[in-house]
């Protein structure tokens, strides 16, 4: 008897992405479960309008916390977790179906991702080494770890690997990225701070250029042209800002109230 599969899509304000994402799994899923965390752009209305979707809602705290709430609500034995900016190709869908139907010895599977920067496939840097456990038995897999993204831990540790890649259209504009960048760096710094980690002059000085060197030279981002160069600089800046925001939490001072007279002078200069 074929195994049953729930595709779990977690989202917020993804109206521009959710349609193509759901279409890519429509022929694969026995159930599509959309877990929304407060959309206001029509995402919820669209998901509810589709007869192949079941919608659940809750406040978002972290990605791991939100997904661990949603996973037990899947009605099928197997769960595939995807984001709205990801697409399941026919080749990957066929491999997933074969894996869950014919391999009783595995409780989870690693999936590689084909990452895209503004529509351009990334072949090098750390972005080309993306491997995640996204397919697992519902009762075996949960997210753990402090990262805002988190990682799925399969309790039995019996995991296989799939060869077809999950397409990930992660970034269509720098404006979108900077919004995510702000949240990711803040969450990481807050988690470090909660665990008692102190800011380090050496880490702030050396980690960003070392990250650039790793992505651009060691992981051959230079072979990806402008795409690889942008990713390498972005990763270096991301590394720096995590350290800077940790310093801010420990040592940043609050701005004192500005005197009304100073505000009036500034307004007169601007007029």
UniProtKB/TrEMBL annotation:
SUPFAM superfamilies: Nucleotide-diphospho-sugar transferases. It comes from the Bacteria. Residues 6-125 form the Glycosyltransferase 2-like domain. InterPro entries: Glyco_trans_2-like, Nucleotide-diphossugar_trans. Belongs to the glycosyltransferase 2 family. WaaE/KdtX subfamily. PANTHER family: GLYCOSYLTRANSFERASE, POLY-BETA-1,6-N-ACETYL-D-GLUCOSAMINE SYNTHASE. This is Glycosyltransferase 2-like domain-containing protein. It comes from Lacipirellula parvula. The lineage of its organism: Bacteria, Pseudomonadati, Planctomycetota, Planctomycetia, Pirellulales.
């Amino acid at each position: 008897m074929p195994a049953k599969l729930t595709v779990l899509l977690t989202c917020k304000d993804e109206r521009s992405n959710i349609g193509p994402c759901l279409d890519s799994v429509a022929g694969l899923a026995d159930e599509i479960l959309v877990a929304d965390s407060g959309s206001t752009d029509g995402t919820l209305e669209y998901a509810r309008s589709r007869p192949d979707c079941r919608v659940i809602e809750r406040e978002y705290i972290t990605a791991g916390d939100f997904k661990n709430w949603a996973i037990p609500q899947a009605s099928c034995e197997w769960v595939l977790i995807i984001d709205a900016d990801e697409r399941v190709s026919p080749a990957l869908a066929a491999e997933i179906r074969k894996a869950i139907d014919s391999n009783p010895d595995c409780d989870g599977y690693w999936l590689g991702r084909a990452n895209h920067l503004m529509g351009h496939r990334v072949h090098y840097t750390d972005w080309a080494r993306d491997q995640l456990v996204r397919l697992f038995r519902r009762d075996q897999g949960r997210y753990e770890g402090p990262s805002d993204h988190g990682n799925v831990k399969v309790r039995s540790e019996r995991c296989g690997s799939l060869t077809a890649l999950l397409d990930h259209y992660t970034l269509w504009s720098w404006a979108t990225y900077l919004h995510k960048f702000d949240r990711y760096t803040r969450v990481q710094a807050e988690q470090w701070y909660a665990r008692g980690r102190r800011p380090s002059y050496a880490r702030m000085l050396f980690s960003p250029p070392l990250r650039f060197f790793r992505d651009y030279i060691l992981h051959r981002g230079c072979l990806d042209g402008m795409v690889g160069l942008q990713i390498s600089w972005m990763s270096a800046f991301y590394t720096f800002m995590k350290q800077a925001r940790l310093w801010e939490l420990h040592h940043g001072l609050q701005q004192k109230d500005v005197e009304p007279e100073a505000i009036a002078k500034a307004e007169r200069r601007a007029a």
